Fold each of these.
Amino acid sequence: MFTEALKLQKTKKYIIQGTLFFIVFMLIYFIVDSLNMSYTEMQTTYGIGLVITNIFVNVLMSFLSAFLMNLSTAMASLKGKEGKAQSFGFFSVLFGILTYGCTSCVIAFFASVGIAFSVAVLPLAGLPYKLISVVLIIIGLIWIRHELNHGTCKVKV
């Protein structure tokens, strides 16, 4: 059934949907980056290599997250139910906002739920946390592929 889901990705509906997901995720990741540290400041502090790496990881995470959302939508249309792996994309975005987001925003968020602490400066402008987010998205893709190939449909044919 995974091959059927891949075939659906080539249809107009899924191309438009995937493009919209990609744009939304790109906006989210670039806004979070700019709240953390501007690219100019990042280049001054760490060099152009880290800026290029961050932009590449943003594009990769956006593409993989959009693909994960599209596969989940395809699974819903093929099986009549959504997969549990779709939440990995959400977890990676939430993880990113809570770890390499704007420090003052994170402190304010945790203070509002009763957790007060000081956030240390994150190494390499939060790059290690982005890589953990990429791993979470890849786990989601592996999981949804497994669900598509081995899951059962509730409706007996």
Amino acid sequence: MAEAYEEIVNGESLLRPAPDRRHEIVCDRLHSLMANGVTGISTTRLLPPRSVVQVRAGTIFRPDLALVTAANGRLFLAAEVIDAKDHQIDTVIKKAIYEELNLPRLWMVDPRYDNVEIYQSGPYGLALKRILACREMLQESLLPAFTVSIQNLFRS
């Protein structure tokens, strides 16, 4: 079972509750699929789930999934699996900071609705590119070997 964990936003400690079982199943499945998708890509590293990532001075996140560039360790794709009892931090606070930082890719993986919101950095911040559900496929152009159906990601 997952444990509570800490994130720091602008120097302020936020204690996050232990994720529920469904959250962890989706997180584990996404990680396993991504690990296969980045095999053989030497420019990219997949960090373990909820690894500590300092996104700026005084702000430390623990994304459910984090891909960093191998050359400099810079975060370029974060996935946050939304927890029904603790969603505001991911969907509002962290998303705003990711936008300020020009994070190239952000996925909001939502087991409450079995969908994934795909955001990409653009000239005006993070832009919602798609909301994927049902039989649609989650893919990333920067990772050609990664693909998963939304239905498979959220299966029971």
Amino acid sequence: MSNKFDFVSATDKPALLAFSSPEWLDAAKAALTELGYKVHTAATHSDFLIRFSQVRYQVVILEELFAANNIGENLTLQALQGMPMSQRRNATVILFGESFQTFTPMQAFQQSVHAVINSSELFLLKQLIEKAVADNNIFLHSYQEAQVRAHAAAEKGD
């Protein structure tokens, strides 16, 4: 791996970034740090997949052209799109780039991510991350509540 791996404690809020643009990477890192996340960065597609498989990230922000010339060559995005939901359920996945209109649900759905953000809105990144995470938490609330009840019932032997 290109970066030294940071260990994540039970109280940390881990986030993973995959950017080719240093300016965008710095802005995303600053926004997540300000929001209290422990930020890891991936330098390559394989670095991303190794990190993603080892840590239960709460937020993942991926540049549409991460280590690619066009979105179709983004192997990291392709890998995320092909993962079963059980592997990526805990992460709010945000796709960042120039070809999206911020928070367009159909574009997010087409890319199998929770939210898309246009790079022209970089100055609002902190607020947009907060909104994407909150929206995802609201969406998953009923599922998570049912999961807790099922786990409690299983422990009781019901």
Amino acid sequence: MLRTSTIPSASRLLIRQAGVSDLGGVLRVCETHAEYWDGKLPSEIRLAQYFARALRSQDEVFQFWVAEAGHGPMVGWELLSATSTDPADRQLTAEATTCLGRQAAGLGHVLATHVIRHAVRTPLQYVFARVPTRDTLMVGVLEAVGYQEVGLIPAATKPPVHPERLEFVYLVEH
């Protein structure tokens, strides 16, 4: 069952739970955000498989949302995924991944806030986010909505190469 979130009525954004039919739009948003992968996206086939699996495996806690400009095109998305397969820990910790088709602090803020509001209604205790250090827009957004910086992940030197990233955590208060 796909649900639409409640967002401020003044907003022209629609945040809704994604479905498998949104895969093409999710991949297009990734392409516009490729600069944060040093301009080299992971294999399109691997990305399509990863996102198709994420879209099919949603449950009450781990979900995938898309942001649309009114009834127009997809402008960003947010994925809340499990960080552990251990049944005892699985629903305590999640990782939030945000992808903005266009760099807009307002859109990032709406998506990050949406995830926090959702997390409060679940058993989650922590939500982590990893952001390239050069993505100053998302670093600012995460700090503004209450995430705390907890570490620096050095750049990877062997494939798949990843830039230096900051790790943030949000302590979910119930």
